[in-house]
Amino acid sequence: MPLLIKNARVVTSTEQYDAEVYAEGGEITRIGRSIRVEDCAPGTRVIDGAGKLLFPGFIDPHVHVYLPFMGTYAKDTWETASRAALVGGTTTLIEMICPGKGDEPLAAFEAWLGKAEGVASCDYSFHMGVTRFDGLAEKQLREIVKRGVRSFKVFLAYKGALGVDDRELYHTLKLAAELGVVVTAHCENETIVAERQAELLVAGRRAPEYHEESRPVRVEAEGVHHLMTFAELTGAEVYVVHTSCEEAVHEGLRAMERGVRASMEVVLPHLVLDQSYTQKAGFEGAKYVMSPPLRDKAQLPKMWKHLRSRALATVATDHAPFDFETQKVMGRDDFTKIPNGIPSVQHRAELLYTHGVATGRIDLHTFVDAVSTRAARIFGLTGKGRIAVGADADLVLFDPNYRGTISAKTHQMATDYSAFEGWEVKGRASVVARRGEVVAEDGKFVGKAGGGRLVPRA
Ligand code: URP
Ligand code: ZN
Ligand code: ZN
Question: Whose CA is nearest to atom 9 of ligand 1?
């Protein structure tokens, strides 16, 4: 159904203006100071945007939906994750395909694609996880790129599980440089982590709060430095996922100064949560165990500063949903066995708005850039991340005056807890359109289930 949004305040990553936006056939076809309903196709749905902000649909470039990990599986399905994303204004998700080291890349690609196809209600794409590099893997990676997946993912962490060694890293980056695909990377020195984990356990330090001590900031900074060396020598373009601390950001910036093609992501938890959450009594701290870990609270203003300057390009979630009662408890006596991850795909934009825009830490344009536009640019989602004639009609009519509270009792994610239980939000997505179809309204999914599609990438 054609859609006309009247009286809107359009906000993009660079400008804002009053306008009316008309979409037909899934695309924005007209933007004008005033568009008359009589000039639109019969049956056009008209929405009044007065008092609201009109943003391009949000893009979360780092989520896990289907994730076999640490002896269990992430809790969401594409049905639940995509609904939760849309309710929060996120119209496109990029999921990490994470095959086991023995798995063939092509089989993994088919498996991950199969979970989303016909089930996802938002649009989606993938980063192809490279967990092995040999002749067969190389051949299949070339095929996967031909099929439209134009980014890889490597883990320098998770020794013996998803992590790659330096030979594999080198050849993955060389292949990426040749094919012109971006390599996203989780940067932590896996050997130091493994050694420190063993030392802490021997010393009887087994509670969630010791997770950070096993992977302190230098471990991450070393990981970023390591990746940048390899990127420089191979000419590959890299994207550092979930940068959590100033030390890691500096390594990225130093590399960019010497010409390495790189960008950095911060995830919502690293902007609004700190290490003290993992010290909560009664094993509650396990809810906040993710990697890289939540940091000392002195890091948070530094991360906001780097976001404000746009040294941090994107704000993602690293949504990795595990239940507290049945999954996080696997590490009750050993923090190294707590499935890592914080569910947050639904609340990224409203929490970034609440703690970033509403507090004056970032302006509206940086907000749009970080939650939408830059991810579209970096990952070749050419139809997304902008409000322009010809772009996909992924639109978020955002109500800055809304006030509400987050709770696991009402969220759409499949997990039994929220890391943000009881938190107030200032503002939320009030109407969300995915390619012109209204799919969420005032916190409820109202779309046709399974209407999402694999996004073509440049
Ligand atoms: O703690 C995290 N980040 N869990 C998900 C896997 C990953 O490292 O991205
Ligand atoms: Zn990671
Ligand atoms: Zn991740």
Answer: 318
